[in-house]
Amino acid sequence: MKTIRVVAAIICDDMNKPTEVFATARGYGEFKGRWEFPGGKIEDGEAPREALIREIKEELDTEIIVGDLITTVEYDYPNFHLSMDCFWSEITVGELVLKEAEASRWLTKDTLDSVEWLPADKGVIEIIRNVIV
Asked: Which helix (H) or strand (E) covers residue 47, if one does?
């Protein structure tokens, strides 16, 4: 089975004491309308943090600082294996402009379950729930 390596930004209001995280609804494909953390594929020769900075600039027209690795989610979709490095992130420059997603929300500990997450993204929700206040 083919492995696809991706990165995801867990964009929060404050990496030192997060109270909310940013999520987007996929605007295309088989999982259109399902929720995920923004990010994308790591290109050949690219470090995960570099890929995340590039992807967020492309998808959200925003610059971020990338913090600690939260976890690496390993998930088997029917046609491929996904390996997703999830990093805490914070906005440094710009407004969040949706270029690919159809919707977005800032979610708190109490509202994390209010959206229908993509299967792989569910793998990081419990970790986030235990960190945000």
From this structure: none
